[in-house]
Design goal:
alpha/beta, globular, binds zinc ion, 2 domains
Length: about 350
Amino acid sequence: MSQPAAFTITYWGTTGTFGNALLPGEVTDKVVAAIRQLVEGGNLQQLRAGPGLDDTIRALIEQELPLHVRSTYGGNTTCIEVQTPDALIIIDCGSGFRELGIALAARWKAQGDAADRTAHVLISHSHMDHTFGTPFFTPYYNRANTVSVWGPKVALDSLTAVLNPDSALSRIYFPPTYDLLQALNEFCPVTAGESWQIGSTHISTHGLNHPGGALAYRLENAGRIFVFATDHEHVVAPDPALADFARGADLLYIDGQYTRAEYEGREGIGDELPTSRQGWGHSTVEDCVKTAVAAEVRRLHIGHRDPNRGDQHTADFEAYLRRLIREELLHLSRPDGSCEAAVPHEGLRIVL
Ligand SMILES: [Zn+2]
Ligand SMILES: [Zn+2]
């Protein structure tokens, strides 16, 4: 009998730095590319108007077209839902947190009296792409819900500074204040190196190299391990402390915003002119691969996608990532495929 899931992980936001919604012209380009590929593949002749046409088209595009043509990697900033056997844990509150809030409110309503209306929010750091979804999370406004927030004290203090009705900054950035967020139960400050339990899940933290600091989180339950490590700039690769922290993870989600050439300012991203990104607090995909392989993680997800990187460019970046992993495994005489690598898209669900 297969082991029950320790973690069901859903990505609600994987974009770094700033949200990037698809532009109208980009949507049109996708429609053009999709139709062209279906015509070139001879896939349209079989379609006939009538009942079931939508289902037939949907099946066809999912079968014939790659994700970056038929869909998008998404444009919301960091938010990851982790359902454990006995707790709902949410990591970071970027714009994806708003989307999760809408889904969660509907989910709990549908479950009626059986709903466990509690959640634990872990915040990596205070930067806006990780926190500014907070006042737009609708479950906060329902007193029937209970949400505890864990994170570095500076991150919790920064939220208090802009949401406390008595603060000089209240209503400056967001209309609502804490007194309206009635589900907010408690703020729990945590530091690097600390560990604690949320239900049956053991959580530990690690300090990352990022302007203002950031915390990585390691979640362990029933022998399964999920490590979330963004935002972080490698100083050396592999990063020995991060590799130790992530050791043996079933899934490592890590900040690999740039290629080496982009980081060093030899190449631009999208339409942006080349500029050095050294000291900005984010890593290269090359360094992430070295740390992930050194940590012997089974699956690597490169997150904090640069908002200038469009879907086609991200698909190329993902192909480059897979080549890097194969080369690093070969270099260390490790079996090909012993570490799977991907750039996760919004809506992707992973069961560990
Ligand atoms: Zn960030
Ligand atoms: Zn940051």
